[in-house]
Amino acid sequence: MTQPTLGVLALQGAFREHRHRLQTLGAPVKEVRLPADLRGLSGLIIPGGESTTMARLMTDYVLWQPVRDFYARGGALWGTCAGAILLARDVQGAPPQFGVQDSLNLMDIRVRRNAFGRQVDSFTTPLAVAGLQQPFPAVFIRAPVIERVGEGVEILAEHDGQVVLARQGRLLASSFHPELTLDPRLHELFLGLVNETVLESVR
């Protein structure tokens, strides 16, 4: 079977690192900046960065509805750190001057921004992830936490009793930055999710 093409939202943040990690796994990758860039993709990664900046740029480039439509057509989405915030139906902790945080309103989770502290509080920790035999070296940088998961959301990892990795069907959300490590296993997990989605669509 031909490898499905994946996209990385390339407006701001750690998109180059995601692209590089996917390329080392042999996956065809395309950077996404405009609605037309979503054509032909089977999966899209929304990277870590600054969620309010990324949300503003998504408005400027008219990407909110095209990404929702991409998901509705069967595409898979993975949000890492800021990307997890943009996937969530409920976002808490936005600065008062920004009002309500814009999001895609797709994944039935509530996230709280910057729950693990400021930039100086960044840390790396071995994280037990469902389905992985060895701990994953999770990098937390101004990371959000998943405070609530809805029905149908599978918890894949927790840190100190707080949810930091979850899946809901074709949606994957991680509080941390898998792209900032040399460990490819979460990108492999997302590729597996995308391949599973593609196979289901042709049955």
UniProtKB/TrEMBL annotation:
A GO term for molecular function: transferase activity
Catalytic activity: aldehydo-D-ribose 5-phosphate + D-glyceraldehyde 3-phosphate + L-glutamine = pyridoxal 5'-phosphate + L-glutamate + phosphate + 3 H2O + H(+); L-glutamine + H2O = L-glutamate + NH4(+)
Statement: the UniProt record of this protein carries the keyword Cell membrane: no
Superkingdom, taxonomy of origin: Bacteria
Keywords per UniProt: Glutamine amidotransferase, Hydrolase, Lyase, Pyridoxal phosphate, Transferase
Pfam families per record: SNO
Pathway assigned in UniProt: Cofactor biosynthesis; pyridoxal 5'-phosphate biosynthesis
Positions of L-glutamine binding: 49-51, 113, 141-142
Active-site residues from the entry: 81, 177, 179
InterPro entries the record matches: Class_I_gatase-like, PdxT/SNO, PdxT/SNO_CS
Gene Ontology biological process terms, A to Z: L-glutamine catabolic process; pyridoxal phosphate biosynthetic process; pyridoxine metabolic process
Protein EC: 4.3.3.6, 3.5.1.2
CDD domains, per the entry: GATase1_PB
Record's signal peptide: none
Cellular component aspect of the GO annotation: cytosol; glutaminase complex
Subunit-structure text: In the presence of PdxS, forms a dodecamer of heterodimers. Only shows activity in the heterodimer.
Function per UniProt: Catalyzes the hydrolysis of glutamine to glutamate and ammonia as part of the biosynthesis of pyridoxal 5'-phosphate. The resulting ammonia molecule is channeled to the active site of PdxS.
Family the UniProt entry places it in: Belongs to the glutaminase PdxT/SNO family.
NCBIfam families tied to this protein: PLP_synth_Pdx2 (TIGR03800)
Protein name: Pyridoxal 5'-phosphate synthase subunit PdxT
Organism this protein belongs to: Deinococcus puniceus
